[in-house]
Amino acid sequence: MQAPWQWLGAHLRRRWRAHALNLLMLLGVFAGTHWWQTRHLPAGPLPDLALELVTGERLTLAQWRARHPGQAVALHVWAHWCPICRLEEDSISRLQADHPVLTVAMQSGPAPQVAQVLQQRRLPWTTAVDEHGEMALGLGVQAVPVLLVLDPQGRVAATSVGYTSELGMRLRLWWAGL
To answer: Residue 101: which of 130, 133, 67, 137 has the closest Cα?
Structure first.
């Protein structure tokens, strides 16, 4: 009698072409879905956006990036009402402890309301307020959450729409920093 792993090995050897084709099709579906979700997001350098942080501080994206010279940075667009954004909150908090991350609260109310959400959820984020979604719209954001990773020169190096694992975020920042 054959052990289960021996049967599996023999099966995979006999059917390797079919398995390889299935894997290629699956990768194609993932790549196509990613392309479709990110088709409106910017490539190259971002415009120098005017930001209002929940603290009341006003600055531009270039001024915020200048606080982190020579580093890849992340721009995370989220909304307080988004359930997937809630799933990413801990990952963003841990990521921000190690990397420069600017979060943008899209259509989440005025600065005091966003500050209250951050306080209630214990989120130590540097957050810009995009009360009416104009900034997000200008960036091509059509759904949240969105992660834009900028390389040290300020060019978009990676994008994702929807849930992104913490490892995925860290790998994108690492790759952009090379």
So the answer is: 67
Which residues face 126 on adjacent strands?
Answer: 102
**Bridging pattern class, strands 73-78 and 58-60:** unpaired
Q: Please list, in sequence order, all residues whose beta carbon lies within 8 angstroms of the beta carbon of residue 129, skipping any fewer than 6 positions away.
A: 52, 53, 54, 104, 105, 108, 110, 111, 114
- 80-106 pLDDT, tens digit per residue, is 999 999 999 999 999 999 999 999 999
Domain ranges of the chain: 4-38, 44-177
Q: What is the CATH code of the structural domain delimited by 44-177? A: 3.40.30.10
By C-alpha distance, which of 145, 150, 28, 27 is closest to 92? 145
Q: What is the pLDDT of residues 14-66, one digit of tens each?
A: 887 887 888 899 999 988 988 998 899 999 999 999 999 999 999 999 999 99
Extract the runs of DSSP E, i.e. beta strands, from the chain.
44-45, 50-52, 58-60, 73-78, 101-106, 126-130, 146-150, 155-161
Parallel/antiparallel/unpaired status of strands 155-161 and 44-45: antiparallel
